Amino acid sequence: MKIDIPQHKKRVHELRMPVRWGDMDAMGHVNNSVYFRYMETARIEWMCAIGCQPAPHGQGPVIANAFCNFHHQLEHPDQLLLTTYVSDPRRCTFESWCTIERESEPGVVCAAGGATVIWVDAALRKACPLPDWMRALVS
């Protein structure tokens, strides 16, 4: 299935990774919960690349919700390409998106999902405005 990412989404990162043997379930394909780990890994890799390290006692991103649509099975030993996109910055949130393809089948999206990222003050345990530097990166 070919999926076009709408123009308002900004492509920000690519990550290549293998499907590990332990990612599969009894049915012989990647377990549905693992796709969320793949997308999380891609999102965290992007955030670290832009200098947004986890800050458990400061301000930073947390996930408010997440979803994934499954189009084609993945299995070991597939090599994956995860592409991360961002969009729709608001006062405290932005949207993140991820497509998952096999490197051997460029352009064929096996799964696509996303998450709403909310900026929080960990000490106060509440949402706070996106910093200007993050807003600029996701706009």
Automatic annotation (TrEMBL):
Keywords: Hydrolase. CDD domains: 4HBT (cd00586). SUPFAM superfamilies: Thioesterase/thiol ester dehydrase-isomerase (SSF54637). GO terms for molecular function: fatty acyl-CoA hydrolase activity. The keyword Hydrolase applies. Pfam families: 4HBT_2. Belongs to the 4-hydroxybenzoyl-CoA thioesterase family. This is Acyl-CoA thioesterase. It comes from Comamonas antarctica.
